[in-house]
Amino acid sequence: MNYIEFDKEKLVNIEYAKCRELLRCSRTGSFASTTLLRLNTRKYHGLFIVPQDNIDHERHVLVSNLNESVIMNDMEFRLGIHQYKGGIIDPKGNKYMQRFVAEPVPTYYFRVGKFNFKSEILFLNNADRMVIKYTILDDVEHVSFQFQPLLAFRQIHRLTHKNDVANTGYETCENGVKYCLYENYTPVYIQCSEEIYYEHHPVWYENFEYEEEIKRGYEGIEDLLNPGKINVKLKNQVLYITLGTEPLDPSTLEELYHNELKGHTNRSTYFNCLQNAAEQFIVKRNGKTEIIAGYPWFGRWGRDTFISLPGLTLALNKPELCKEIMDSMLMELQGGLFPNIGSGSDCAYNSVDAPLWFIRTLQQYATFTNTEKHIWDEYGTAVKSILNAYKNGALYNIRMLDNGLIYAGCEGKALTWMDAIVNGKPVTPRTGCQVEINALWYNALCFSTEMARIAKDKDFEEEWKEIIKNFPTVFKETFWSKELGYLADYVDGDYRNFQVRPNMLVAASLPYTAISEKIRQLILNKCREELLTSKGIRTLSPNDPDYKGYYAGDQATRDAAYHQGTCWPWLLIPYTNGMFSVYGKKAIPVLDKILFEFEDDIREYGISTVGEIFDGAPPHRPNGCISQAWSVAALLYMKWVLQNNRTL
Which of 82, 307, 506, 586 shows the smallest number of beta carbons within 10 Å? Predict the structure, then answer.
């Protein structure tokens, strides 16, 4: 049996199969996503989703579905499955599915009568192109495939509806057709390895229903255009069909498919699945190498990039890739801050922690590559610009106080990773001196002065010497409560917030820390008692009256729970570092157990990957994005630490 496999019983169970989602990506930012039974339940689902550089650089659903049929003896057997308004499902093509396996690529086995065949889906790594391979497993005559493409041509966050503006025309290309519904879009070329017969008859299919969007409080009804029917009479045992933004020579499809397959990481084990997932977050486009924070709806996030980088690159022995991504992000460093979301003129520089996580990543990169002697020469200018911006004042009232602590925040803004906003107000505003920000700040100062010392930059050392010297005392006086036995989450003037949150874990996890080993031990104990679960770390103790154990409902309801008890796997990164810093090798059995708690999850939500969040309350149901960069990174980083008996 394959490592990830689902049999007919699971595939014909609509309720079971539509809760499990698939994802395949190129390294150019294109991707495909749907449910296990190929029923699209989100507006983010589609067969061919491609960034549109001429429009907004956002990903757009070009082809929602191919809507396949098999025609034998003049009888049509529809393989598609769609849900229409009111929950009506038609057709139910999943009844022909016999088996699904994830290796070497997502593969479906079908049986129509006595006719057996399989389809394999492959996204090319370095092009906006996917190839589907159909292999006939029986000797059957007079069989044809028919494809009725369902086109959307819209941004992933929106929906399309029947209109008179869409270009319903087509152009022919070798063994295929070309479509482009609207101006400025890249066209879609659909080509086959065999000669086709095309029937052009544009029809709008109306009222597709995306159940998950409706559950989440969004509009979930869409219309899709079917421009015509692509018919292919089988002459061989194998048929290839490709979707791309440029035409190709159809005779090259077989060679293209097999050459591409050689470079793919298989998903034959738990850790191979994690590595495969890690690779899907890396996007190289327009001269930049970036990390997609999560599929299917997140783009590039600055904070997520730096938190994810060590696990996605260093833990896989890819330091060159780590550097490439850091350098890409540095192109957009502005006023000492990195963009949190967006790109170019649409960037939002509203993250107080992203620059400090960058310095933390740089520290880990230097340790991994043993390049401390050269780091300051290459990155010293960027690091100085960040530290000086914090010292002298940056956007959103980010500034260093006279005592050396960092203060951040203003009305209506949420600058830390706990950034949910409901009705214009942050759910967890945390304005003031946040515990993890100041822990990262101290670590950044100590690391930077050490690199400056190696590079003989005495002026820099002298500038920060007194602040570093006094910082541990100030930090302890500000955040520590001897009576409670843990750190305040944030402090604003005389107010100290002592809700039990995981942010204090960061203070216990860094190489340069302002607190003693005893305090770190007490923090870890508190987190273990009230926050640690089998699926990560809760964002708030269940003992707190503000605790929300379940993440569900419309956006406002979900955002109210997002950082109020919901579990986040990424927090296992500081937990792992903290445990090793205090307990050394004695932490291995504890961390090893947590690491393997996620093995079953790669079959439960996002197939062969790990999702964004889990409910804080048992049974810790997965939720959010089906594949999240820092979740996968956390597990790969844990694996690296356990194998090497040290942290980065």
Answer: 586
**How many CB atoms lie under 10 A from the CB of residue 167?**
16
For residues 267-290, give the mean pLDDT: 95
If you ran DSSP here, which 8-state letter would residue 597 be given? T
CATH class of 5-262: mainly beta
Going from N- to C-terminal start, the domains of the chain cover 5-262, 270-644
* Residue whose C-alpha is closest to residue 600's, from 534, 648, 644: 534
**Whole-Å CA distances, 164 to 63, 153, 202, 203:** 19, 14, 12, 12
Residue 346 pLDDT > 80, yes or no? Answer: no
270-644 and 5-262 share a CATH fold: no
What is the mean predicted confidence (pLDDT) over 337-346?
A: 82
Q: Give the model's confidence band at 73: pLDDT under 50 very low, under 70 low, under 90 confident, else very high.
A: confident
So what's the pLDDT on residue 585?
93
State the Cα–Cα distance between residues 54 and 184, nearest whole angstrom.
6
Alpha-carbon span 38 to 150, nearest angstrom: 14
Strands (E), 271-416: 282-285, 288-291, 294-295, 399-400, 406-407
**Rounded Cα gap, residues 506 and 484, in angstroms:** 18
- DSSP letter string over 458-487? HHHHHHHHHHHHHHHHHHHHHHEETTTTEE
pLDDT score of 280? 96
Q: Which of 102, 83, 92, 99 is nearest to 42 (CA)?
A: 83
- For residues 148 and 47, the answer to whether their CB atoms sit within 8 Å is no
Q: What are the residues whose beta carbons fall under 8 Å from the beta carbon of 25, sequence distance 6 or more?
A: 31, 32, 123, 280, 295
Number of helices followed by number of strands (H, E) in the chain = 17, 39
Length of the chain: 648
CB-CB contact of 559 with 552 (8 Å):
no
Q: With H, G, I as helix, E, B as strand and everything else as coil, classify residue 410.
A: coil
Average pLDDT of the chain is: 96
Calculate the alpha carbon distances from 286 to 67, 321, 535 in Å.
Answer: 33, 16, 36
Closest by CA to 120, choosing from 19, 206, 110, is: 110
Question: What CATH number should be reported for the domain whose range is 270-644?
Answer: 1.50.10.10
Residue 344's pLDDT is 66
Q: Residues of the chain with pLDDT > 70: what percent?
A: 100
Strand runs labelled E in 80-214: 81-84, 88-92, 97-101, 107-112, 115-123, 129-136, 143-147, 150-155, 171-173, 176-179, 188-192, 197-209
Sheet of strand 433-434: strand arrangement: 433-434, 490-492, 495-497
Give burial (CB, 10 Å; 0-12/13-18/19+) of 211.
Answer: middle
Q: Where are the alpha helices (DSSP H) in 13-98?
A: 14-17
The mean per-residue pLDDT over the stretch 105-126 comes to 94
Q: Which of 448, 322, 318, 443 is nearest to 379 (CA)?
A: 448
- Number of CB atoms found within 10 A of residue 423's CB: 7
Task: Give buried/exposed letters for 409-420 (b at 16+ CB in 10 A, else e).
Answer: beeebbbbbbbb
Does the model's pTM come out above 0.90? yes
| Residue 272, CA distances (Å) to 602, 611, 641 in order | 11, 16, 17
* CB-CB contact of 354 with 362 (8 Å): no
Beta strands at 171-173 and 21-25: parallel, antiparallel or unpaired: unpaired
Task: Examine the pLDDT at 343 and tell me if it is beyond 90.
Answer: no
